[in-house]
Amino acid sequence: MRPERMAGLVARWVRFYTRDLPAPIAQRRADEIDADLHDHIAHDRAAGIGERRIALGIASRLVRGLAADAAWRSRQARAGVGNPLSRSVIRVALGVALVLSLPLIGMLVSDDVVWGPGDFVAAGVLLATIGVALELAARRAGNLAAAIGIAALGVAAALVGAADDAPGLVLLGILLIVSACALGVRTAHRSR
Amino acid sequence: MPRRKPGTLLPLEAEILETALSLLRSGYATFHGFGLAQTMREQSGSRSLTAHGTLYKALSRLEEFGLLTSRWEDAAAVEGRPRRRLYELTSRGVQVAETAVADKASARPRRLASEPA
User: Fold this and answer.
1) B26 lies in some domain
2) CB of A135 within 8 Å of any CB in chain B?
3) How far B111 CA sits from the closest chain A CA (Å)?
4) Is B66 among the domain residues?
5) pLDDT digits 0-9 by tens, A57-85
6) Residue B89, φ and ψ in degrees, nearest 5
7) Inter-chain contact B37–A71, Cβ cutoff 8 Å?
8) What SS3 class is residue A5?
């Protein structure tokens, strides 16, 4: 393998672990490594080192630094993109409010929908629990098992809801299935 | 990866500061990533260069500690190659590097200058 090809592999890895980071931080890291790789190849060629050995040297530096790259990314993500916990809480709260607004609107426009305060509280707690579970699952890239588990839970909720003539449970099941699909798509996208 | 005790430097961070100090004393006030890795390899007699992730993570931490500053080199000096990020010891960095050199001689943990041991 030519050194430039190995350098390209390193550049792709840098693009991967700097994804979603603020552009100036990601660009700085990419440009700095790019300059390093260029200097490394030029230095070793000038020293008469063979192409294969240069490529191996670059590969060695890549592999030995993987853990540090991951740790650096984690620190940058925590420091530069705000508090992920508060963003998760906001997402879950918005989701719960959006879903609970549906029966509320239903009560306003139809006499067939009758929810008491206890129903709203129970549904709110249930939805918040599901939201937190989805947030935790979504934080783990590549967690296909979580998506499948959520989808199975959704199918079960929809089937039980249909058998017991409980449209709320069917709706919840559908929401879970849609969430599982979204999580699956995201997982597949991240693993490319 | 060694754990950091509060108020101390990791061995790689101390090595970077010591190398930067030796470069400064040789008339090179600024240095770049690969040049630093190459100098460290020569000084330590190691066969391999410091890994990218390890090196730039350590440089980033030393900047956060206020021991190094950095800037991009002038476009005019580039001459067809990618721009280098140039690092320089701060005055506090010089102090800490000198302490690290002294501590190394007496085999004590490397301390950050203004923090209690």
Assistant:
1) yes
2) no
3) 22
4) yes
5) 999 999 999 999 988 988 887 776 545 56
6) -70, 135
7) no
8) helix
